[in-house]
Design a protein that fits this description.
By secondary structure, the protein is an alpha/beta fold. Helix content is 33%, strand content 19%. The protein is built from eight helices and seven strands. The protein has a seven-stranded mixed β-sheet with strand order 4-3-2-1-5-6-7. Strand 5 and strand 6 form a beta hairpin. Helix 4 (69-76) crosses helix 5. The protein is globular, with a radius of gyration of 15 Å.
Length: 167
Amino acid sequence: MKAKGKAWRFGDDVNTDEIIPARYLNTFDPDELARHCMEDADPDFMKKAKPGDIIVAGKNFGCGSSREHAPIAIKAARISCVIADSYARIFYRNSINIGLPIVESAEAARGISEGDEVEVDFDSGRIVNHTKNAEYAAKPFPPFMQDLIAKGGLMNKVKSELAGKDH
């Protein structure tokens, strides 16, 4: 499984209110959440970002509240993955549970600039910055997490198993 897109840079401690502002939490509609993704961190983000693009951030991405709206907004915005130095643990788990690929790599988080063309191989943990001709390492997802992401999240995986498609 791979992701490839243009990098959009954010700093340290990007909280869930910056990812999806609380004023939009009256909906669970993924398309509505996507329209406001990263709005308080960069008001023009959704005007600039394209499907498949990649968010790159510093330490503690997704800190703040434990709301699932934040990773849902990113996934619904068709961002292919997030690369960060580190994540708030609840955000990390929520992301995997909904099938949003996120990768931890301090080296990549420091080395990737806004606008760089980046490719991530989730099976190997290899991150390639095609713009700078640089390569970074991340811990690859274990097979069970790759399966969760490939199926679109925990609920879809469970539905698939209950339907007998995973036997």
